[in-house]
Amino acid sequence: MIEINHVNKWYGPSFQALKDCTTKVAKGEVVVVCGPSGSGKSTLIKCVNALEPIQEGEIILDGIKVNDPKTDLPKLRARVGMVFQHFELFPHLRIIENLCLAQEKVLGRSHDEAMAKAAKLLDRVGLKVHANKYPAELSGGQQQRVAIARALAMDPIAMLFDEPTSALDPEMISEVLDVMVDLAREGMTMMVVTHEMGFASKVAHRVIFMDQGEIVEDALRTDFFGSPRSDRAQKFLSKILSH
Amino acid sequence: MFANFDFDVIRRSFGYLFLDGMTFTLTLTALGALGGLIFGTMIALMRLSGYKLLGRIAGLYVDLMRSLPLVLVIFWFYFLVPYIGQWLTGASRPVRVGAFTSCLVTFILFEAAYFSEIMRAGIQSISKGQPAAASALGMTYSQSMRYIVLPQAFRNMLPVLLTQTIVLFQDTSLVYVLSIPDFLGAASKVAQRDGRLVEMYLFAAIVYFAISCFASYGVRRLQARISIVR
Amino acid sequence: MNYNWNWRIFFEPAPNGTGTYLDMLLSGLVLTIETALVAWIIALVTGSIIGVFRSLPSKTANRIAFAYVEFFRNMPLLVQLFLWFFVLPELLPRSAGLWMKQMSNAPFYTAAIGIGLFMSARVAVQLAAGIGSLPRGQMQAATALGLTTSQSYRYVLLPMAFRIVLPPLTSEFLSTIKNTSVAITIGLIELTGQARAMQEFSFQVFEAFTGATLLYLLINIVVVIGMRFLERAVAVPGYITGK
Q1: What are the residue boundaries of the structural domains of chain C, listed by start?
Q2: Domain C12-234 has what CATH class?
Q3: Do chains C and A touch (3 or more CB pairs under 8 A)?
């Protein structure tokens, strides 16, 4: 489903954000990407739907090369859902409108069809009663659940999560993770940048550990938590899990 | 103090002052603001487009307009618009253009420079995540601008845009230099015809003051409401 | 475009017998600068007082400043000049009014004072905003040291506030220069007025206005560069006053 081959990315002439990254996410697979801040994990996931350009290597999404100038990026992006750290709901639109806009303008669905889909998904994330509110009237956890529903409304073939819980107050994290766990169990292909090791150990098939722009470790979940090979991954895990 | 003043002149010229003069002023203000906003937004988009040459041209235009006094710009376009009309229509001689059209073109092009700066600030105030989220949903650049970025920029900047429109409303009085009967021009014509300068200019001042005060009070109310919602 | 360009017109003698058309424009430039400088001094002094009033913790002072600013901001400059020029002399006692009307330089003084007061309202708003942007602790620290209110303003608040509002004040100064052109309506033949006169005498419309345009651009450039030097000269380490 997602293939990342020898990707290099620089910010400016000197700072290399990604160094020769290679990995794969198969259909139905859940892959968690973790690593210290500044390790390039968010950059990597944003390269998958070309929100960030890459300079070398290739990324192939469902058989289509992302970094090919001939690729119709809007069309490709419409097929991959993305959830952002800061939700990025559109503040000037009601919740229901947030879910409908891209369905109608990008997928060309009729308003009724979009509304029906939106209502169903809002119900699924437990926020149907808030359909006519504005994003600012919802809590962070609720906003992030709306953001997930908004992405799902596009019937994505895969979902990308960029630190979906790190801007949330602790008591709201679980409501978002619950939605994600459900999604994983239904067989959604997911690439998740997160520090939530509980989520990783529960549903991830594989865990990728990044540091300083490199993929240091790319292992099955059981191997990663059982016996991480690299020092850096061990140190990182001990820091995260020690509290 | 006002013993030998004749304020009845205002009543006698009421229809001319308001039906002709004020209508001209308000129409010019409204259309000037609307056109200025549309052109200004286009200029702002050019400046933020990432195309160096396009941005440079737009920037030079804004700097030029903002360096010149409006009075000079009014003179410029008064003489230039007939030639622009000739060039646009391919006529053999400069096209005769009505006073209103000439003024409207002037104000749209002049105000566009100021509105563009406001819209540019508005667009830049939107966090980068918003267009990113729009892209991630598959929207094209123009869709993301049209549905996500511009509506928010416009809303955030509404008080500033309205304040600029009040400035524009006052600035329309400068068409006086072309002897065009806007509200002030009409007042001035009556003043000179009847020799009632004091009465007419005082009255004009009060009318401008009342309208501007009322409008800026409205903007302050709006601002307070917006800041509560945020 | 069937228009007969004649750029040499600038070096031809003007019919008013004071030299060439270029001399005409230059004399207009000098008058523009003189008027603007006097107006700017009035605007700065009055505007500073009103700006301080706006920021004082006194309801009465705030109200006075508010009324002052509203009065000068809500009337077109042109109308204000008419009030000073045509209306004020009629409302004063006969002898004073007569003296005003017979003053030889009446347009100049009216323009300088009228534009100065008009701009003072804008200076006041900028300065008050600058004072308001200072941390509250500054005033408290000054008071705690035993400084009186006026000493606090004089030695602590204003020096910093003026530095902060230097960039907006630059653009207000430029507005003052541009606004002098409004005074052609009361007979001040400054730069725009001279360009207009040149156009009427010579019929070379676009040359005349181009000449004035270039001179205005020149003033702008000189002022912007001058203010940049000033900003650098008074810059306080650790504070970004420019941009």
Answers
A1: 12-234
A2: mainly alpha
A3: no
